[in-house]
Amino acid sequence: MKDFTKGPILKALVSLSVPIVLTNMLHTAYQLVDTFWVGRLGKEAVAAVSLSFPIIFLLITLGAGFTIAGTILVAQYKGRKDHAQVEHVTAQTVVLMLIVSVICAILGLLISQPIMELMGAEADVLAMAVSYLKISFLGMPFMFGFFMFQSVMRGIGEVYMPMKIVFGTVMLNLVLDPLFIMGYGPIPAYGVSGAAVATIFTQGLATLAGMIILLRGKHGIKLTFKNFKFDFTLVKQMFSLGLPSSIEQSMKALGLTVMSFLVASFGTAIVAAYGIGIRILSFVIIPAFGLSMATSTLVGQNMGAEKPRRAEKIANRSVGIGFITIIGISIIIFFAADFLAGAFLEGEPEVLAESALFIRYLCFGFAFMATQLVLNGVYSGAGITRTSMIFSIVSTWLFEFPIAYIMSKHSGLGARGLWIAYPISSFLSALVSFIYFRMGRWKNVRIIPSKQEKLEHAVQEEAMIEEGL
């Protein structure tokens, strides 16, 4: 495996972030395929999936946050060149994710029917939505299993193998989606539930492939059964690292839901414009997510190697690359706003005009969003996930939603206040996070024993053995 604790920083960032970006784009393609085939079944099917998605997403974010703990510890022990601990942490991550996924699956199965009724699903949608939810929740262990594999592989700097597996699942999903949704020959048409069945099947194969790779040990980590013995101390540490990330992600999901309620108060045209703008946002920000994950790995490995100065250089370089890159993309998006809005909708001039306006306002905030994402990657890599959580909560609940509410409801701007709020809240969020970053306290955090502490512990153990204690 490459040693990212030395060598050119730019090369390391590019070699890690590009495959991660491509993997995220493949995940997006996976969702688009599902959306396309479900759309062939009619508006009731689309409504069933639309109602189900926030619930599934919320439980995924609650559980998947714990995989970040695996990434952090694996990266830091990899930087320390403590291969035994890398493999031990990986095995315990498998154990933790199995427990969490089963809990999420059971919880999901129990709430499927009540939550859909609470959300007001109509009779012709309710049965489809509940069926889709229950099948999706049954597949949670597979979904979390592959999250775990991606996380530990990213921790050691292996990002190409997960990308190849995701590519394979996308290709397989192209075949399985229409097969299970529409039916063919002896395979019945499962309708909306067929999309969930296809997802479980492909995620199951992806998890199986990941576990085989880990057990064979030819890609940097080899799992052995002795490492699966439950390590309460380590799992407790992983829980304390992962819980803030889970809260962070779930608060973002909840914030998106609350923001949707605010937008809905301005009517259907504004809701449609908001939906188009958010889709553009989700695509534009993919490179920043990739850079954030790459930064987290590099910072983690260098903090583990006790090279905080190099970790700071990586952070500065990553922030600069993210800011400049996204500014370039933003300029293109700004001038192409009308075209992009028209690509999602035809024949609705009011919606198209509002969509293009929203996209242009978003362009003034994209670079600041990227900055905050990269800095969150820095804090995660250093092991201060609570700091990342706090800044994300501040961003959503202290800046984004309150500013949007005040500017849209109490300033006379109306719906335009919603659009203006995004760049303002993005700037304020990035500014607060950057000020903390420049204070440098994150460089002093230690979540694994230093080499000196480890040596002293070994000497003490040897002395105690010699004295018969």
Helical residues, percent: over 70%
**Could you state the oligomeric state of the chains shown?**
single chain
Structural class: mainly alpha
* Strand composition percent: under 5%
Number of strands: 0
Q: Which of globular, elongated, flat, extended, rod-shaped describes the shape?
A: globular
Arithmetic mean of pLDDT? 86
Q: Nearest-angstrom radius of gyration?
A: 23 Å
The helix/strand series, from N terminus to C terminus, equals: HHHHHHHHHHHHHHHHH
Could you name the ranges where pLDDT drops below 50 across 5 or more consecutive residues? none
> How many helical elements?
17
Note the main sheet: none
What's the N-to-C terminus distance? Answer: 40 Å
Q: Domains counted in the coordinates: how many?
A: 2
